[in-house]
Specification:
By secondary structure, the chain is of the alpha/beta class. It is about 35% helix and about 30% strand. The protein is elongated.
Length: about 160
């Protein structure tokens, strides 16, 4: 049921954005009835992390870049990765998607990253953020990390919600 709920959420958000003409590249949505503490402990929910099954993705080291930039972004905002077996307030997972825009003279690649926080005590998804960015495979890993961190920081700009 959890996967079905996530699919419905992604489709609903996508439909809402496309029908409203919104071209937003980063943004959050959250449960307004949840109190987000100023500091919290979280852990990765590995079963729900998703990357495209594509050798090009593995070559770009997206898994490490996503994990590092998300961890840094959350830690900057007072949410620390819990030690193995420690008490956690939230479980965190992400999904990465790739797409192409075919233009008259070119093809441009883009990537999406959605970040989800699940309340560990209720098992409810309480916050989701997303980013969409152009992909330039020819740039260095350091530059990709820098660009991804910039986008993750935009996504987490107002995190935790007040």
């Amino acid at each position: 049921m959890r996967l079905l709920e996530q699919i419905i959420l992604v489709v609903a958000v996508g439909t809402l954005l496309s029908s409203s003409g919104c071209a937003k590249k980063a943004g959050p949505s959250y449960d307004p009835f949840v109190v987000f503490p100023a500091t919290a402990q979280w852990t990765w929910d590995e079963a729900w992390n998703r990357l495209p099954d594509d050798p090009a993705v593995a070559a770009l080291n997206i898994r490490t870049l996503a994990r590092d930039t998300i961890t840094e972004g959350l830690e900057t905002r007072g949410y620390t990765l819990a030690p193995q077996g420690g008490k956690v307030d939230f479980r965190v997972h992400y999904q990465v998607g790739l797409g192409k825009i075919i233009k008259r003279d070119s093809v441009e690649g883009y990537g999406t990253l959605s970040l989800n926080l699940v309340d560990a005590s209720t098992n409810r998804q309480v916050w989701v953020g997303f980013i969409k960015a152009d992909i330039h495979p020819s740039v260095s890993e350091a530059e990709r990390r820098k660009r991804l961190q910039k986008e993750v920081n935009k996504m987490l700009k107002d995190f935790p919600p007040k």
